[in-house]
Amino acid sequence: MGKLMPTFLSKVSLACAIGCMLFASTTFAVTEKAQARPLRIAVAANFAPALKILLDDMPNKEQFNLQIISAATGTLYLQIKHGAPFDLFLSADATRPELLEQAHLTLANSRKTYALGQIALWSATQPIEHLNTLTHYTGKLAIANPDTAPYGVAAQQALTYLSLWPKIKSNLITGININQTFQQVRSQAVPLGIVANSQLVMNKLSGVIIPTHYYQPITQQLVIIKSSRQIALAKKISDYILQTNSQAKLQSLGYLAVTSSNPLDEAKR
């Protein structure tokens, strides 16, 4: 359906930040009456595979020219803040969309919670059947960077809940984002890791889901960028992601569906 192509990003003074991050872009089918430019969707790395699945199932998708640009949430946030020409931003957290909203860079009332993430303990080298595996574990453990990645924050909170953070933190291997952490474990470079449950589900892998009360909700929110010239289409995509059928699909992909009548209420749980 889609094909990989280079991503255009505005030239801003973020060379260091950008140089440390990986970007990927996918363009979806183009209508016969081509849009002036694609609708550019900036999406957190963890959600990009799920978004592609959702858009592939979107009715009349051939009528739209959509481009997905995936990277770490923090990098995309900085790009938007400095004027990158994105139309819709799907973050891995609630913080960055709220900051953009406070900076008056988003369309009024467009900030919505579109998914709730889950984390899981997983190894590519041995079956993991219980979180007790961590109790006597002395090897390296991969997690996303808690300083920059929402899934890393959740991993740190879960380890703290289990009273294991002081013991394990010196043996951590931290990825830029949860995608890098998953690859570190999948390649067997690190024997054990805390990854996104969605990564396991979509790759037909088995791990141990960490109970959600061990960490603060991974509230993933979206916003429409106010400078977009395709507000109507951005709203259509936002509504499609939030509709019941799409939320059921996300649940089958390893996320927790947003069931609140007001999606922002999920952020206050």
Topology:
Elements (H helix, E strand, L loop, with lengths): L2 E2 L10 H5 L4 E4 L11 E6 L3 H9 L9 E6 L1 H9 L6 E3 L4 H8 L9 E6 L1 E4 L18 E4 L5 H12 L3 H4 L3 E4 L2 H9 L5 E5 H6 L5 E2 L8 E7 L6 H12 L1 H9 L17
Parallel strand pairs: 3-4, 3-5, 8-9, 8-10
Antiparallel strand pairs: 1-2, 2-4, 5-12, 6-12, 7-10, 7-11
Structure description:
With 269 residues, this protein is α/β, with parallel strands linked by helices. The protein has two domains: 165 residues, Periplasmic binding protein-like II (D-Maltodextrin-Binding Protein, domain 2, 3-Layer(aba) Sandwich); 91 residues, D-Maltodextrin-Binding Protein, domain 2, CATH 3.40.190.10. Helix content is 31%, strand content 20%. The protein contains ten helices and twelve strands. The strands form two sheets. Strands 1-2-4-3-5-12-6 form a seven-stranded mixed β-sheet.
